[in-house]
Amino acid sequence: MPSRLNPYLSFDGDARQAMEFYADVFGGTLTLSTFGEFGRPEAAEADKIMHGMLETPAGYTLMGADTPPGMEHTPGNAFAVSLSGDDAAELRGYWEKLSAGASVSVPLEKQMWGDVFGMCTDRFGVTWMVDITEAPAND
């Protein structure tokens, strides 16, 4: 298997809901493992997600988990997940689902560099950027 780079998101107790939401947005196979399955049967953490992985038909992999007990969850804006490409219908579909109930900082519209771009922060505090590359005009 070749090396790959993919985002791994941390959540404060709502990883299951977030990962299920992303599975609804992108489709694919979602695998969730709880702390209880790996020897942490304490009631408060047994059902929390120790590791989640979504593998999509488009080839995206998104991972996430609840912050482990004893570690501080410090969400921030130091990262964003970027989706880009030239399949406008696919990317607009993702945008519609991700931006529903989200805080939209940049509406999905044509930008000065020629692409259609939008940015939102979803209900789980994750910032998403969608960039649709416009096909060059034939001269």
TrEMBL record:
SUPFAM superfamilies: Glyoxalase/Bleomycin resistance protein/Dihydroxybiphenyl dioxygenase
Domain Glyoxalase/fosfomycin resistance/dioxygenase residue range list: 4-130
InterPro entries tied to this protein: Glyas_Bleomycin-R_OHBP_Dase, Glyas_Fos-R_dOase_dom, PhnB-like
Domain of life: Bacteria
The protein's name in its UniProt record: Glyoxalase/fosfomycin resistance/dioxygenase domain-containing protein
Organism: Streptomyces glaucescens
